[in-house]
Design a protein that fits this description.
alpha+beta, 2 domains, 10-stranded antiparallel beta sheet, 4 helices, 10 strands, 22% helix, globular
């Protein structure tokens, strides 16, 4: 979280200063190719966000990838000593698919998050929207609003783990990250 705040503040300052900020990184294309590049994380005009990835080749050529085009499976970069890895996640029909940030890189499960904001009657609420992946590539997105699918979809992912299923019944949506971390620590 500390790294996210630092990156956010730096992005804000850079945007105000109108300076483009690039970080060395990689993209994995849908055909499986890995490309080393510079990822634009702050600056003027288009920058990398939930639905757009802006990269620059080492020759200086800039290219914009839209998440909805499904050309990029994953990308990552290192900035201020922290690693940032994002994966394209196709989510349920009520939400837009996009790039989610890796927050738990476990052997059993990988947990990604994106924060979604919604405004109703003038009140804006921001909630985490998770995606959990198994090593075989199976995944489910976990919406955490009041009528969200998070528990139902976790039951599907955990169907081969009776102990985890039992414990799942006792957790709230605010405990998803801690729950997945605990599952990844178990042998």
């Amino acid at each position: 979280m500390k790294s996210f705040i630092i990156l956010f503040l730096f992005s804000l300052i850079s945007t105000i200063a109108k300076a483009d900020v690039f970080a060395g990184g990689f993209i994995i294309l849908s055909n499986g190719d890995t490309v080393l590049c510079q990822i634009k994380i702050a600056g003027k005009k288009k920058v990398t966000n939930y639905s757009t990835l802006v990269v620059q080749s080492f020759s200086g050529e800039e290219k914009i990838y839209k998440a909805k085009d499904k050309e990029v499976l994953e990308y990552g970069y290192q900035y201020l000593g922290s690693n940032f890895i994002y994966r394209f996640v196709e989510v349920s029909k009520n939400f837009e698919s996009g790039f989610f940030r890796l927050i738990n890189n476990g052997k059993k499960y990988k947990l990604y998050v994106n924060y979604l904001s919604d405004t109703n009657n003038g009140v804006t609420v921001t909630l985490p929207h998770y995606a959990i992946f198994k090593p075989n590539g199976d995944y489910k997105d976990l919406t955490t609003h009041v009528l969200g699918n998070w528990k139902k979809n976790l039951r599907i992912i955990l169907s081969d783990n009776p102990e985890a299923l039992q414990e799942l019944e006792t957790i709230s949506r605010k405990e998803i990250e801690a729950f997945v971390k605990k599952l990844n620590r178990q042998e």
